[in-house]
């Protein structure tokens, strides 16, 4: 099996499946009821909460089950922001958070709050000083993922938590990508997770709020899950989620070593075997199973189709796959190449031979896409001392391909002016310059679109 | 099996179980992804949406899946109220709606909106004229359940929808209790449902918004389910929910006749075989499987325990079981007896012999509770021409028991003054008077608690 998109959703763990089946029979009734079937559901729910709390490293009464990780983030952020409203309405997030966090921030801003985005380095990592600089007397909440979902970079959560704690500001940690691998260390205040990322069933998230954190649940009142997650409890799925979290944790240490070796192999061999590739994400502080790279002169969607035809399921943060046609906000914040982007995220138990098959198939897939796209000839014209490339109306990765075709036509020190109205070019032309050792001079408004100026250095 | 609480949650239908198992293997991936596993999940999701839309009687693109019926109500009400905010902020609900609707109304009021509650008759039914009277130029939304969850009374949805439509006001119908039995007829605008009420798995609700209804989804943005239900789609559970809805609908007409005969039997025999019982809810316009009655001189919680020991699982809207110690808002709005309240809601396939066993066990269970409670002697004292019963500090059903003990001690035309600080007495003493043909004169503040004045008529 070539399913390499575990960071989106992991296949159901066998333990989860078994627990789900058993609790469909035992746990379908309303756990709020006092009769036999209700008491049985309540016992299952309580036991699942104990197990999940033990895995997270919190008290059972600090943990509630939500209907998804997204809901956990929405409810957690809204609850702390409302609970600490008297302190102020300032929210801090990193620039590379999951969309559930960034959309919570947007909603907060739309409701009159203010938001500071902390930048990341080229590896995708924040540093604690960045959070320290962002803290203000009116900061109600800071959010930081435990590890990035697109490039696998692990964040310095404990250090950031210390900085926040010293200022009396709670830190919400979106632990969706890392919870299967282990507890989140450090003095965080709120934590969220998503069961289908660790092999649990869909329909279960978790929200942990440490005692002492001011929290005011938002939305209509509902007595279930301590008033923090409205709606009938999904006991069978919750039982399965908790069981699979324990199961993956038991295998985590050993599996981490194995998957890390496989992703190391991809990190090392892809740039050797495919020309013009940039591997992105922090090379050391990273999750075991995720590796991400970008291929010049390739559009992500075509490459995904090629790989799918070859039997491999991966995802892409490339501008060319998203329905909005804007590049991944994560790659953008890191300032790395977004075109031809591929994220490989190995599920627990991914087979070595499948990874080898993938490494064997990738060069051909990239070459096929490049062949298709290589056709268009750049319409270049020398204007004064500048070579102008008109890429107006063309989408990623064509502008970069056209730039690469003509850079040799100007003398060293000469300029190429690429006219483009593609949003992705803003990101990819500077990234290409960095990869190729050319100078990105800057951009300026043109009669149509934007002109990107590149100086040939060598 | 004596599980008679289907109105809370129905056991999983065999078809749902089978569909869930199959789609756990086929539908665990992210339906937004373009690779094979994602396309498969998308196909399952699309097919489930088509099937559910057909069962509801709407277009597939009008229906989204939520994580519960409660979430569907919260999202539906909030979305229409926001979408029609320019019209005004007035909301109409019936007094007997499910708590998810009433809590939405509370939240709306807390946010500055206004709410009108439409009253019901003694059978629990609204009438269209009540909604007509409540409509105002600034009415943004009206809500009405298709049938009541506590007493089974079916509401005149089509008539109310006509009245609302004539005023240009959308009607949201909470169809949680009736959707397994059939489509909701009439010109409603928004409809909500809950899969675990029809034998689907927990974790799935549905929200239908007719084309043309102004709707602005609330909360942080999320691209899933047309932006109306945030979080990763629970495809396996959705597939199971849609499959079981089709399955129960195929059996509904036949099963309705069978269950109606069984609940008719309960309606007729309980008052014959147990003294001092009031059957509540509309005797004709009612769901097939629900029957509710209240027993004088009994507390609901003790009776539920007695019945649970005898192997029967039922619920109660009695003041004595709720954690808040206030009687069910439904029984209160109907003005019927709340003490010793029992709701029997038969699941699909409930066996006749189990119903007969229940009818056999009930008189003994009621008698046992009455025996235990019958012990306290009323402390009565004649003050002027009024017999005073001091029930201060005593909870439902003791005040009514003490009243019943002494009513014969005053002459016809004489007064009994019951002192009580129990909230339920407000409801139960007038209800007892109506059942017993005595006159409830009214209540007045006393030195402690409230004095209820009752005149002996016969």
From TrEMBL, chains A, B:
Catalysis: reaction(s): (sulfur carrier)-H + L-cysteine = (sulfur carrier)-SH + L-alanine
Iron listed as a keyword: yes
Keywords carried by this UniProt record: Iron, Iron-sulfur, Metal-binding, Pyridoxal phosphate, Transferase
TM annotation in the entry: none
GO molecular function, one term: cysteine desulfurase activity
Record-linked Pfam families: Aminotran_5, TusA
Alphabetized InterPro entries for the sequence: Aminotrans_V_dom, Cysteine_dSase, PyrdxlP-dep_Trfase, PyrdxlP-dep_Trfase_major, PyrdxlP-dep_Trfase_small, TusA-like, TusA-like_sf
Known cofactor(s): pyridoxal 5'-phosphate
Residues in UPF0033 domain copies: 389-413
Assigned protein family: Belongs to the class-V pyridoxal-phosphate-dependent aminotransferase family. NifS/IscS subfamily.
Protein's recorded name: Pyridoxalphosphate dependent protein
Organism from which the protein derives: Streptomyces zinciresistens K42
């Amino acid at each position: 099996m070539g399913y390499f998109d575990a960071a989106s959703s992991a296949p159901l763990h066998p333990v989860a499946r078994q627990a789900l089946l058993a609790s469909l029979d035992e746990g379908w009734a309303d756990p709020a009821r006092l009769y036999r079937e209700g008491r049985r559901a309540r016992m299952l729910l309580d036991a699942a909460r104990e197990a999940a709390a033990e895995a997270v490293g919190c008290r059972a009464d600090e943990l509630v089950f939500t209907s998804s990780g997204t809901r956990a983030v929405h409810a957690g952020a809204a609850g702390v922001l409302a609970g600490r409203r008297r302190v102020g309405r300032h929210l801090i997030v990193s620039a590379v958070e999951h969309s559930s966090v960034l959309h919570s921030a947007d909603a907060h801003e739309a409701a009159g709050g203010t938001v500071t985005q902390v930048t990341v380095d080229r590896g995708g990592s924040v540093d604690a000083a960045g959070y320290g600089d962002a803290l203000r007397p009116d900061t109600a909440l800071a959010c930081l993922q435990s590890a990035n979902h697109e490039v696998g970079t692990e964040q310095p959560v404990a250090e950031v938590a210390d900085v926040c704690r010293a200022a009396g500001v709670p830190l919400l940690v979106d632990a969706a990508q890392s919870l299967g691998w282990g507890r989140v260390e450090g003095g965080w205040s709120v934590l969220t997770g998503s069961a289908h990322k660790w092999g649990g069933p869909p329909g279960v998230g978790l929200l942990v709020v440490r005692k002492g954190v001011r929290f005011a649940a938002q939305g209509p009142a509902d007595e279930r899950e301590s008033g923090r997650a409205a709606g009938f409890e999904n006991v069978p799925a919750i039982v399965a989620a908790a069981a699979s979290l324990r199961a993956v944790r038991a295998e985590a240490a050993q599996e981490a070593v194995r998957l890390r070796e496989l992703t190391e192999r991809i990190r090392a061999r892809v740039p050797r075997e495919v020309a013009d590739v940039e591997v992105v994400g922090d090379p050391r502080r990273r999750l075991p199973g995720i590796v991400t790279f970008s291929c010049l002169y390739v559009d992500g969607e075509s490459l995904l189709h090629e790989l799918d035809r070859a039997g491999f399921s991966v995802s892409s943060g490339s501008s060319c796959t998203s329905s909005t046609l804007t590049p991944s906000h994560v790659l953008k914040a890191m300032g790395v190449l977004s075109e031809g982007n591929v994220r490989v995220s190995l599920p627990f138990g991914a087979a070595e031979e499948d990874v080898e098959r993938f490494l064997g198939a990738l060069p051909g897939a990239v070459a096929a896409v490049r062949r298709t796209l290589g056709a268009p000839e750049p319409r270049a014209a020398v204007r004064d001392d500048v070579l102008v490339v008109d890429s107006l109306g063309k989408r990623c990765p064509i502008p970069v391909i056209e730039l690469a075709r003509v850079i040799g036509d100007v003398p060293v020190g000469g300029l190429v002016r690429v006219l483009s109205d593609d949003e992705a070019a803003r990101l990819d032309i500077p990234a290409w310059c960095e990869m190729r050792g050319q100078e990105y001079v800057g951009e300026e408004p043109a009669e149509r679109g934007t002109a990107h100026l590149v100086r040939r250095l060598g």
